[in-house]
Fold this protein.
Amino acid sequence: MRAPRVRFAPSPTGFFHVGSARAALFNWLFARQYDGVFVLRIEDTDAERNREEWVGGIISALEWLGMRADEGPYRQSERSERHQVAIDALWEARFLYACGCSRDEIEARTKGNATPGYDGHCRDLGLDRGEGRALRFRTPDDGVTVVSDVIRGEVNFPHSAMEDFVCVKSTGQPLFVLANVVDDRDMDITHVIRGEDLLPTTPKGVLLWRALDSAAEGEAGWGETTMLPVFAHLPLLVNEQGKKLSKRKDPVAVEAYRDQGYLPEAFDNYLALLGWSPPGDVEKVGLETIVADFRLEDVHHSPAFFDVKKLTHLNGEYIRELAVDDFIAACRPWVDPVPGAWAPTGGGAPWPSERFDPATFARLAPLVQERVATLGEVPAMIDFVFLAEPVIDETSWEKAVTRDEGAVAILTDALAAYETCEWSPESLHEATLAVAERHGRKLGKAQAPIRVAVTGRTVGPPLFESLDVLGRVEVIRRLRATLGRIGQGD
Ligand code: GLU
Ligand code: ZN
């Protein structure tokens, strides 16, 4: 087999969809496997729906996920001359005809027809090309277009069910199906690997491909005949209800996952599972193993459940595997953002940067690393150290302070004990154990009000290390303030 050339061809019409990221990954994997070329082509011909910021989003998301393009990014919009040449050749060879029907006219004529779509009204009228006229493809009346797909086998599309589809809008703007095929030909694409949602347009692409071949052989001589690429349509991504992921209702934006602190390694690993299973049914497999084991022909065609819980769980496993220094470095955008560097949308750290202390964070980091599933959870675990006052979580306060009749006694006793005990996690542990015993409680039950008083929440890093890091003066001050807040202060 000659080295494959694959392409990822997103349209920049919104946030970078997880389905697009999966398509990019499968193309990238295939290229890596066969020493092929991974081309990035931005399909930005639909000026009304594309925005430049979405292009930036695609490029930075791919960079984040470690999928470098070997060629590109090409811009489809910069290739319109080529598209025009192809249109002229198809017109000359009579594959296209002009249609002057308005949408309303078509609808009025075809309402109630068994086969929906255009009725071929202008097919033999011999209309000239020109202002206000779309160009339609003359779909053969009989026969079938067979799409042979690595994942789905042979898929038949009878021509009787296909309309004479529009290739060029009445404004002169070529449609995606045409530009896509012309570009794939010009870029020597050997394998088209993309989402299942594009399967229905594939027979149109195949018809166009063949028409361009025959136009190339004819007098127009606009190009060469080229081999039809191999197709592979990746399974649909569905939500928990088994419905196609919805842009509005489901969390589909890759950017949002990055903001929440998913690691690119974990995200890539999870994406690879969407339609493919690593040998041996292990789910946590590094990218290197995936590159080695991935087979396009092993991709299944049944819908793949995009399971955020599973992704999050996997992410936690990847986080715990990091060397502490790498974890600290990975947390940087959330705890101590570098001016000008990437930071999560809405900003990272909730504390003023001058209050952040890297040495203190380094002490807490190993404890936090054990307890988070995403890096975005880190600030809430440590904000009690870097904020002048802890953020009191009302539910925690209710549960551990207001509704605990013994809370005041515990806090008062702990305050006294902490004033004199030695200041180390071990001594704080002992002192707190003694407090718990004096009040006939288990240690955990005694810790709860203390933790809420000092950190604001019932969950966080281990209490005695937290107290140790915060220091005696501040711990005492916070316990006093809490007693004051519940009206028991001195
Ligand atoms: N640009 C189109 C899309 O994003 C086509 C992609 C393709 O052919 O791979 O839906
Ligand atoms: Zn018409």
In short: Residues 9-11, 43, 180, 194, 198 surround glutamic acid (ligand 1) (CB under 6 Å). Residues 394-485 form a domain with the Arc Repressor Mutant, subunit A fold (CATH 1.10.10.350). The mean pLDDT is 94. Residues 18-33 form the longest helix (16 residues).
